[in-house]
């Protein structure tokens, strides 16, 4: 019997492998992405860096992470929390009154503000990524995390420690990289789904059998090939956020895509249609009619349904462009109406 085949060495190898596996399990932790420096947070919140440092010392209100060199690293959740605080301070609140408040409390206070257009803080889609392959890929494609509050578990699905997800909530999308699937991995995936309770689940696979792909589909789990197409991944993130918003009572694209504000009411447009001016053309009348038509199309495009991620992307662009076109025509109408007001003012001066 060879030395390496001796039962003692077999036992020692098993113990060593178990120890290594346990060590890796103990080291597992979720990594928040993206991370912001204090200068970026100051710019995005309107707060001074010195103020942020004082708040961290006085109220423990600051960066939840630090780099190896001791630099503050703010997560997306940190940033959004500070944006809520900043919004409330602008509305008259005092830092001592709200510094210890939880995020949900701050959100309710912001919603109660009278000037919601100024104080509303947009929440980024929350995504959890699981798997060494996808986490490594994201390291080379960090632009995919722009506008996303992400948490990364760089561990294979079958080896992931479910305890690290304790406290993770309000997840829009769970993304799991898994080349192939077996019964144990499927069981682990279902356990993970129960813990984080995501709105949607996406499995990134490479060569998975047709039977397992059908099994995922029957469970309502989407799948796509790895490495992922960046545009399609962005669609899944946006769609999961939209599905959650719809579930919470938002069912129009107009509530999900920031549109240009209306500059003229329907009554104002109707008045402009019949207005007589000294301009040697009928631009105000034509502009009023065009704005009305664009506004109607804008509302129509916001309600268009989409059967695929490409259709959804196209309709989002159409809605945004329609909104921009309507806004530009309203600016043009403003110029035409301003000339009319100037004309009326000159006539009044002459009559006086």
Contiguous low-pLDDT stretches (5 residues minimum) are: none
Number of folding domains?
3
Q: Which secondary-structure class do the elements indicate?
A: alpha/beta
What letter string, H or E per element, gives the SSE order?
Answer: HEHHEEHHHHEHEEHEHEHHHH
Task: Give the C-level CATH assignment of the largest domain.
Answer: Alpha Beta
Mean pLDDT level:
80
Per CATH, the superfamily of the largest domain is Response regulator
> Biggest sheet, open or closed, and with what strands and sense?
6 strands, mixed
The radius of gyration over CA amounts to 28 Å
- How many helices? The count is 14
Going across the biggest sheet, name each strand in turn: 1-5-4-6-7-8
Tell me the span between the first and last alpha carbons. Answer: 119 Å
- Could you name the CATH topology of the largest domain? Rossmann fold
Strand content: 5-15%
Overall 3D shape: flat
The helicity comes to 40-55%
> Tally of extended strands?
8
The appropriate CATH architecture of the largest domain is 3-Layer(aba) Sandwich
Outline of this structure?
With 352 residues, this protein is of the alpha/beta class. The protein is 55% helix and 9% strand. The protein has 3 domains: 36-119, Multidrug-efflux Transporter Regulator, Chain: A, Domain 2, CATH 1.10.1660.10; 126-247, Response regulator (Rossmann fold, 3-Layer(aba) Sandwich); 254-351.
């Amino acid at each position: 019997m060879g030395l390496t085949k001796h039962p003692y060495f077999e036992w020692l190898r098993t113990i060593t492998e178990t120890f290594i596996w346990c060590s890796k399990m103990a080291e597992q932790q979720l990594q928040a992405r993206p991370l912001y420096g204090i200068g970026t947070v100051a710019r995005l919140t309107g707060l001074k860096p010195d103020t942020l440092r004082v708040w961290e010392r006085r109220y423990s209100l600051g960066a939840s992470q630090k780099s190896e060199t001791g630099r503050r690293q703010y997560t997306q959740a940190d940033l959004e929390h500070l944006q809520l605080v900043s919004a409330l301070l602008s509305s008259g609140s005092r830092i001592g009154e709200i510094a210890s408040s939880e995020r949900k409390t701050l959100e309710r206070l912001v919603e109660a503000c009278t000037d919601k257009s100024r104080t509303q803080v947009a929440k980024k889609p929350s995504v959890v990524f699981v798997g060494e392959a996808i986490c490594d890929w994201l390291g080379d494609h960090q632009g995919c995390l722009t506008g996303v509050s992400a948490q990364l578990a760089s561990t294979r699905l079958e080896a992931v420690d479910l305890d690290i997800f304790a406290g993770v909530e309000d997840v829009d999308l769970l993304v799991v990289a898994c080349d192939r699937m077996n019964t144990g991995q499927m069981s682990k995936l279902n356990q993970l789904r129960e813990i984080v309770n995501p709105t949607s689940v996406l499995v990134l696979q490479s060569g998975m059998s047709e039977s397992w792909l059908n099994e995922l589909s029957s469970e309502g789990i989407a799948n796509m090939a790895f490495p992922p197409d960046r545009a399609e991944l962005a669609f899944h993130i946006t769609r999961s956020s939209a599905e959650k918003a719809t579930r919470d009572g938002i069912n129009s694209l107009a509530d999900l895509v920031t549109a240009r504000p209306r500059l003229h009411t329907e009554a104002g447009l109707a008045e402009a249609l019949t207005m007589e001016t000294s301009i040697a053309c009928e631009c105000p009348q034509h502009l009023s009619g065009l704005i009305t038509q664009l506004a109607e199309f804008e509302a129509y495009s916001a309600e268009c349904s989409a059967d695929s991620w490409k259709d959804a992307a196209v309709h989002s662009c159409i809605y945004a462009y329609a909104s921009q076109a309507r806004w530009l025509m309203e600016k043009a109408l403003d110029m035409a109406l301003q000339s009319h007001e100037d004309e009326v003012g000159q006539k009044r001066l002459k009559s006086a």
